[in-house]
Amino acid sequence: MNTMYFTEEHQLFRKSLQDFLNKEVVPHIDKWENDGNIERFIWKKMGDMGFFGINYPEAYGGLNLDLFYTVILLEELQKINSGGFAAAIWAHCYLAMTHLNAEGNHDIKEHYLTPSISGDKIGCLCITEPFGGSDVAGMRTTAVKNGEHYIINGSKTFITNGVVSDYLVVAAKTNPELGNKGISIFVVDRETTGVSATKLDKLGWRASDTGEIAFDNVKIPATNLLGEENKGFPYIMQHFSLERLIMGVNAHARAEYALEYALQYMSERMAFGKTINKFQALRHSVAELYTDMEICKTFNYAVAYRLNKGEYVVKEASMSKLKSTKMADEVIYQCLQFLGGYGYMEDYPMARLLRDSRLGPIGGGTSEILKEILAKIIIDKKDYKPVT
Q: 3-class SS at 378?
């Protein structure tokens, strides 16, 4: 293991996490994949173990650890072969909770962040809309100030934890005339009148709950505003660096898992009197795939190191997601081929891995959007700056 970034304490954490996942999560994965639902008990167990509080303040029950503990959590979640379970966990922990921690006041943190860390509340982040996709600035959901309240109307889609969550972190336009400069962020209780959700049926990530959410004259206290009014767009953009890096780390980890599984299979599978890992065509293919995976992993660690120091790594995180998710799809496609007919069978892990991996170049900003962001930075010399 790379000792440039990981200490002995990191390794002990990885081992305890592996033990926990193998004991408490893996036995239930197939059921959750088939049911399309993750049972509630596991959230509390993970909260009790401190897994939701890794990089959050101790004042709210967190552990305030460095970002490489998060990297370990992400990597190990990918290696139990349920992209849906992994997505539900990190969407709660690093999408919804990130906004609570960064923009929420003390009261909001006590009411939402503390129980999120303990596993007593589940959160979701609501940005994407049916007509917007990756075009965050084009959102139509509105939040109109009315005395001491805001009235929210609109809809969101492709929201991980969108049906089962206890609260929603919602982006809405408070001043539509200002375009992306008129967006604000709110926290909304699930039980608020006017909030409804419909579960979506997906190709992959089957264990996770993904919802389409409607807001029909949803009345919330003005104190549920996160941060400043009309600052929502830069808040979202600022946190995209972490989200994109997360998806990059997820990608290199699932590619590594796929290669490890394929290599084990190839060392046992006999053809023409020898194991198939002795055939040059396959050996050279593995060498190339493993190299691509290792390059992405090394780059992702370097970006995590810089982000952990407080640098604004929007360019590098975008590169991480763009390249790593493409690499993972290619690696897993080839690993399925190594297994031949067995790769196409649901009894083997590659079919699920292939479906789950395909969301990588789509979710959290499509590869096409990331290319344009990078083109603006590289060609047009666009200089993105953090808002806080």
A: helix
